[in-house]
Amino acid sequence: MYAKMIAEQRERMRKQRVLQQCTSLLNSIDLQLKEVAEDIRYSSFVGNTDSTRMQMKAARELSLSDPDKGLLMAQEASRSASDILSIAYSGHKQWSDNRRMVYRQTAETVNEIKAIPIESKKLQLEMAALVSRLDANLDVAAKPEYLKQYVEEIKVAAIAVKERDEREVIRREVVKKVVGILEDQGFSVDSPKIKDNVVFITSTTPTGKAAMFQIQEDNMMKFDFEGYEGTTCKEQLDVILEKLGSDEDIKTGIEQFVWKNPDRIKKGAKDLPYGTQRHMAGRQ
Length: 284
What we know:
Elements: H1 2-38, H2 50-65, H3 67-93, H4 97-114, H5 121-135, H6 144-184, E1 188-189, E2 193-195, E3 198-204, E4 210-215, E5 221-226, H7 232-245, H8 262-267, E6 280-282
Antiparallel strand pairs: 1-3, 2-3, 3-4, 4-5, 5-6
């Protein structure tokens, strides 16, 4: 169930983000077309934008029912808009065809990357740095073959940032759910801590029992329990897993786990915190 939960949560979030990305991209295109049409330096070079605006309208409508197809249409509209803008700028600045091509390719990629929604402030800075690297090429004459490779490298880096942010959003939801369930079960839960990109959740009861969770970047979870007699530890975990699996928003559950060396757990060995000899793990 855990692998299924992660997949379902990721897909729901992906569609929400695709819709956000589509809306942001279309808003950006609309603003750029308006600005260039109202700027006397470029307005005389702006061609007919009716076809592009029809694409934009259709993309907005389609994105509400099918975000993926809507984004594809929005990206097509972005390419059309970039062509219109590059012609306008080229006409005013008297660029060569190659220079216009460089601008069009770079501006199109900048628009697409800026439209990607990122929640983590740290990753927002990383994405902004990528955009800055592209922005620097907007006013630089570069060979098209060099630019194509450079733009592709930036795109790959931007996708990696987006995927890291998506995993972190899911993990935050899982962490909140685990903490809430532990508190409902009578545990006193310490504030989650992160070290080496692993979130650690430690909780205890007044009777001396302890439950500890690790949630890694890929959302694999490991568990440790102390102070339990025999397999009562497993019984406690089963209760927690049932609660995790009943959540309609997160749909959390654990598909598989490994039960090892219950005697060490019963003794509450202190030398094996989060140890591989006595943990249960749910894997994607």
